[in-house]
Specification:
single chain, mainly alpha, 10 helices, elongated
């Protein structure tokens, strides 16, 4: 970056009058730096979120199935997950660094931990929310426990599971911006870079922040659509 008297001017080529004047928002800067700044950060943020939610869902699903069969382990698992969620993200990063270093793994471990407290209780609630008379009817038809799970319990638990996924995805996208304090990755990095300037460059902050919000809304909308495809019998008002 280069600095001059008056407003701070990021060293983005020759710069337009909008950039030189540090206006509220400069579309020209967004166009010029989409390919080298914003798009890579958006892709990294999407990868960060997809990995965290994917691993978190796999772990939460396995733990929820175990807790559904062995009810006494539900409370301990829930307490541990809730305890992890109470640790601030920056503090958790610092606790993990001595073990995993300043790496992508450190960020993912923290994000996966935060998804568990959201996904685990939602999956358990969905499985346990199946009406008892439905379960008894399925057993009366001769369904084995495995068939009961796959044909009855899981399909009826889909609304609760997708609801948990929606919250987990949006939360991970939000918390993922803080990862920039540890690694130069994701949409938090352009924001962090701009904030570090003596006079924060507003366009970079607003554009990266807008992309984070747009990503969260897009993912949430896709999950709502997925829910309606998987459970067309559910009322739209519950989406």
């Amino acid at each position: 970056m280069t600095f001059a008297a008056g407003p701070v001017i990021p060293n983005f080529g020759q710069g337009s009058s909008c950039v030189r004047g540090d206006h509220v928002f400069c579309w020209g800067w967004v166009r010029d730096h989409w390919g080298d700044t914003l798009q890579p950060a958006l892709i990294e943020h999407l990868e960060l979120t997809a990995i965290a939610v994917g691993i978190g869902f796999a772990l939460a699903f396995a733990l929820a199935l175990a807790a559904h069969r062995v009810r006494r382990i539900e409370s301990p698992i829930g307490v541990v997950a809730a305890l992890l969620y109470t640790i601030p993200s920056l503090a958790l990063f610092q606790l993990l660094v001595p073990f995993t270093g300043i790496t992508w793994t450190t960020v993912e471990i923290a994000l996966v931990s935060y998804t568990l407290v959201i996904l685990f209780p939602n999956i358990v609630a969905g499985l346990q929310g199946v009406p008892e008379d439905v379960i008894e009817a399925a057993r009366g038809m001769g369904l084995t426990p495995r068939q009961l799970l796959l044909r009855v319990e899981l399909p009826l638990a889909v609304p609760a599971i997708v609801a948990g996924l929606r919250i987990a995805v949006v939360s991970t996208i939000s918390i993922g911006t803080i990862a920039a304090f540890l690694l130069p990755k994701g949409l938090g990095y352009p924001i962090f870079n701009a904030v570090k300037l003596p006079t924060p460059f507003k366009t970079e902050i607003y554009s990266a922040g807008f992309l984070a919000v747009a990503l969260a809304l897009t993912c949430d909308g896709l999950l709502v659509g997925l829910r309606r495809v998987l459970v067309p019998w559910a009322k739209r008002g519950l989406a």
